[in-house]
Amino acid sequence: MKKWAMAALIAFFGLPALAQSGGFHGDEPPPPPNKQESGYRGTVDARHTSIASAKRMKTNAWVTLDGHIEKKIGNDKYFFRDATGTVLLEIKGDKWNGQEITPKDLISISGRLLKDRHGTHINVGRILKQ
Predict the structure, then answer these.
(1) Angstrom distance (rounded) from CA 94 to CA 57
(2) Where are the transmembrane segments (predicted)?
């Protein structure tokens, strides 16, 4: 009985070690804006848009953007940049899917565009490292 109890305790306390790590690691500076457009990125979704054009859309529009996360500014809040500007992202912990992302990584984000008295931000539903 003691062996089963000990095995259960080890399994219970050992599970967090197996959890997916991931998220944003802001210890590297982002590349200059003109480097975002270079390189092979595969098939480009026809619905991808820029930050400048996304800011002109209505609230609750679903947008897909390519760019870089510049820095973390609070709990689940990040600055995101492409060649046309910057926007605030809200990324919940479960959206990272174990991906480790730095400012140098070109990523594609999809999410709901929200506008309020504080400005425009995107509630991210999907992150894909390219």
Answers:
(1) 27
(2) none
Can you tell me the distance from the alpha carbon of 32 to that of 45, in angstroms, rounded to the nearest whole number? Answer: 23
Alpha helices in 27-91 (DSSP H): 51-54
The fold for domain 23-129 equals OB fold (Dihydrolipoamide Acetyltransferase, E2P) (2.40.50)
Task: Return the H-helix or E-strand segment holding 6.
Answer: helix 2-18
Q: Which DSSP helix (H) or strand (E) runs through 12? A: helix 2-18
d(CA 115, CA 130): 27
| HSE-up of residue 3 (Cα within 13 Å, Cβ side) | 0
pLDDT at 27 over 80: no
Do 53 and 5 contact (CB within 8 A), yes or no? no
